[in-house]
Amino acid sequence: MDKNAVRAAQVLMISLVVARGVSFMFSKTLLVDMGPLTLLGIRFLLAFLVLFVVFFKRVITEIQKDKEILSASLALGAAYFTCMTCELIGLQYTSSSTCAFLENSAIVIVPILEAVLIRKFPSLKVILSCAITSIGIGMITLSGGIQSFGLGEFLCCIAAFAFASAIILNDRCTRRHDAFSIGIVHVGFIGIAALLAAFIFEAPHLPQTGTQWMMLLMLTLICTCLGFTLQPVAQKKISAQTAGVMFGLNPLTAAICGWIFMKEAMTPIGIIGGILIIIGIIATSLRPDG
């Protein structure tokens, strides 16, 4: 394989993971004035419109050839809708760094779910990685005492399981269908579901200031259009193990942004917990295939 192509894919993947980490900061800021479902609906519908206008011919052509793209996109969209809804509501009750760390423990949950699906007991390395990550999660969420594990942390844990399910669904769906088209269509499904839910449970409204619009556009164009659509493109050129290691940058990015821009503090025990989570994620990602 062309080394330059691999290097470009690695740079792209790192950029997407970092963008995902930055999204926690933008989302938490916008949630001060917007409901989580409203933010989710507007963000993903705007992203879908941008992507669909640019890639209209390709998406329509692929759907005409393979109508199962719609059902695959609906299933993937439902998993991500659950993940993102729990994430945004959780962000209202906990810090962006804690939310990012907990949600990205999904990288460790994935091999456990796969083991159940294929009825094969996880390897010793996977078990040890899960143990390390579980200790890290306990340290980062319970560093202030048992009372610090509240609704926000609980919702972030649900988001982690939904994220893990989405990763597995993404793997299954993109093996049989056009990954790029699924990447676009499922974004539309997420936006529609979120906006419908927003009209039921919230009072939807658009951003009120120029700063809010700028943050929304950053979430739409960079974190959604790129992060949710180009990940399959990047992973075509690099191994799953390498991609898994790079996902460790996600919570690290969120923690750094929260510390620099939002004055979010983390206790020494919480910092050690975060390091353990990253170690667990990396150890699982580097497990040999089979």
UniProtKB/TrEMBL annotation:
Residue ranges of every copy of the EamA domain listed in the record: 11-141, 151-285
Cross-referenced InterPro entries: Diverse_Substrate_Transporter, EamA_dom, EmrE-like
GO cellular component: plasma membrane
Location within or outside the cell: Cell membrane
Keywords: Cell membrane, Membrane, Transmembrane, Transmembrane helix
Pfam family, one: EamA
Main location: membrane
Record-linked SUPFAM superfamilies: Multidrug resistance efflux transporter EmrE
Domain of life: Bacteria
Transmembrane segments: 12-31, 37-57, 69-94, 100-117, 124-143, 149-169, 181-201, 213-230, 242-262, 268-286
Record's bilayer topology term: Multi-pass membrane protein
Record-stated family: Belongs to the EamA transporter family.
Family matches, as PANTHER family: EAMA DOMAIN-CONTAINING PROTEIN, OS03G0707200 PROTEIN-RELATED
The protein's name in its UniProt record: EamA domain-containing protein
Gene source species: Stomatobaculum longum
Top-level taxonomy: Bacteria, Bacillati, Bacillota, Clostridia, Lachnospirales
